[in-house]
Amino acid sequence: MSTREKTIVDKKEIQHLIAKRAAKELEGPCIVNLGIGIPTLVAEYIHDENVFLHTENGLLGVTDVEEQDMDPNLVNAGKLPVGEAIGASYFNSADSFAMIRGGHIDVAILGVLQVDQTGVIANWAVPGKNIMGVGGAMDLLVGAKKVILAMTHTNKDGSRKILKECTYPITSTRSVDKIITELAIFEVVNKTLRLVELMPGVTIEEVREKTEADFIDSLGDV
Q1: What is the residue-averaged pLDDT of the chain?
Q2: Rounded to a whole number, what is the distance in angstroms from the first to the last CA of the chain?
Q3: Does 222 map to a domain?
Q4: Lateral strand order in the sheet of 178-180
Q5: Looking at the whole model, is its pTM more than 0.85?
Q6: How many CB atoms lie within 10 A of CB 70?
Q7: What is the pLDDT confidence band of residue 222, given thresholds at 50, 70 and 90?
Q8: How many domains, in total, are found in the chain?
Q9: Domain with 146 in it: what CATH number?
């Protein structure tokens, strides 16, 4: 296996590790919206039939689909092919966003470019680069009852993503509730990060080294 192939494999393993841990946060009955990127993988690890997946483009009851059954017109908000669960319902995008803004989404799991030490995120624009669209994250941060981040702890170049303050345009002034990375899980309590769990094989020293933001170690190792 070449170095590049190994890098791809390692990246996928990390993404699935994060997604699998994020899926443990979901307990039905609940309606969940999965963002683009790592959050889409969470669907593979949901085994509770009372967890219903919602997508901004107008489907409640999203499920996986086998390649031979894919319908090019049936996609999620990230334009990835999806299936429809028994009892699924369709509606237009305006109704879908009304569901979000009306507080009918129990949990949103989002990807992120940066998050600061108060739980405020930036995930829609990189200064100097083209903006494809804002997406639904702004609405989900306002309307979802609980917001969880599923993200890598650092960027490809090793730079930190959990910062004292975001340097990219923020998505909303609302703080998220939980942050899940391949290294650790943080809860945001009163705009303060609390380390509540280390991923297997990870040390507190590694988390501190790769986290710019201040946080409280709730594991007892201060």
Answers
A1: 92
A2: 41
A3: no
A4: 83-90, 59-63, 51-55, 30-34, 107-110, 146-150, 178-180, 184-189, 192-198, 216-217
A5: yes
A6: 14
A7: very low
A8: 1
A9: 3.40.1080.10
